[in-house]
Amino acid sequence: MDLRKVREKLMAYRALDNPHRLRAFVEIAREQGVYFNDLARKLGIERGLLAYHVGVLYSAGLVDRLLERRSKQTSKYMLTEKGERILRELSSKSRREKGRR
Fold first, then answer.
1. Contact at 8 Å (CB) between 22 and 16?
2. Most buried of the four, 56, 63, 88, 101, by CB within 10 Å?
3. How far is CA 76 from CA 31, 40, 55, 64, in A?
4. What predicted TM-score, i.e. pTM, was given to this entire model?
5. Which residues fall within 8 angstroms of residue 27, CB to CB, at 6 or more apart?
6. What is the dihedral of CA 65, 43, 37, 79, to 10 degrees?
7. pLDDT tens-digit profile of 38-72?
């Protein structure tokens, strides 16, 4: 058993164990490169709260951000390789569970 890999997965799952973060993670997966303000509007949560939750996803290595200059500086979010791997893992588990019903 590779304890480093186990710890990495536990950190990812812990980060996703919140409804706001899980919804943000799924929305970022759907729309890679989504702007922060667009994400806040789609999720219907305040920007301060979203900043906290996206920060947790970022710290867990599930999402990355790119600062882009428009009229104001704004961040775009996308899944990291680790985030994509976790998403595939969760999706395959979900499909297997649906097949058992």
1. yes
2. 63
3. 10, 12, 13, 8
4. 0.86
5. 34, 39, 42, 43
6. 10
7. 999 999 999 999 999 999 999 999 999 998 876 66
Domain of residue 77, residue span? 3-100
d(CA 83, CA 18): 16
Go through 35-47 and write b for each residue having 16 or more CB atoms within 10 A of its CB, e for each that does not.
Answer: ebeebbeebebee
Give the up-direction half-sphere exposure of residue 86: CA atoms within 13 A in the CB hemisphere. 26
**Which tokens sit at 72?**
């104001």
The CATH number of the domain holding residue 31 is: 1.10.10.10
Number of structural domains, the chain?
1
